[in-house]
Structure to design on (201 residues):
């Protein structure tokens, strides 16, 4: 079974604010999502599972306009609240008011302890549990190709916790394709992602 991971497009205010993707995507993102849809049309995608956050669901809806598929929203795939007490704050203002918290976030990713943020291990568990449940069911149902519109933090967790790789950068609209044989994953192609390194010793 083919599995395609798609990084959702950024929300409108993501450059200036600490945002977790629960807002509309930018106009540029809307255009690029249509281009992604045209690319995915060639892949035989049958089902698309998205985060319940707005930027991911909008990305999925745009893809569905191009690709005839079943679209499913999954709350457990929502982005991690990394920012806690400074969520929604302007980035410059947050640094002035919450300097130690911002520095903890920047220096200790993904294991920081920012006040009010979601614990990394709780986040990783909800992502991997839902992902594993879906791929197992779809593999048993012999679905040929499924996709996931996730946030970059969710894609990082899948690489780190399930595949055993760290990634340095995941761009908006990144596409990563795997083959899944019921037990393990084989990376077939990647676009918009860099610095893939094994976490094994």
């Amino acid at each position: 079974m083919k599995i395609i991971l798609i990084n959702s497009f950024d929300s409108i205010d993501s450059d200036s604010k600490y945002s977790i993707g629960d807002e509309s995507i930018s106009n540029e993102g809307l255009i690029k999502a249509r281009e992604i849809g045209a690319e995915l049309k060639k892949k035989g995608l049958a089902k698309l599972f998205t985060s319940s956050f707005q930027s991911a669901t909008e990305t999925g809806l745009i893809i569905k306009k191009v690709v005839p598929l079943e679209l499913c929203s999954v709350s457990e795939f929502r982005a991690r609240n990394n920012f806690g007490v400074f969520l929604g704050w302007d980035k410059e203002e947050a640094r002035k008011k919450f300097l130690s918290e911002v520095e903890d976030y920047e220096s200790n990713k993904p294991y920081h302890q920012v006040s009010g943020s979601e614990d990394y291990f709780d986040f990783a568990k909800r992502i991997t549990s839902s992902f594993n449940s879906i791929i197992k069911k779809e593999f048993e149902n012999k679905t040929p190709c499924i996709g996931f519109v996730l946030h970059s933090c969710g894609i990082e967790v899948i690489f780190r916790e399930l595949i055993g790789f760290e990634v340095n950068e995941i761009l908006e609209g990144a596409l990563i394709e795997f083959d899944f044989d019921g037990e393990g994953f084989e990376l077939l192609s990647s676009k918009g992602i860099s610095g893939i390194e094994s976490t094994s010793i």
Summary: The helical segments are 27-40, 54-66, 91-97, 99-107, 120-140, 152-163.
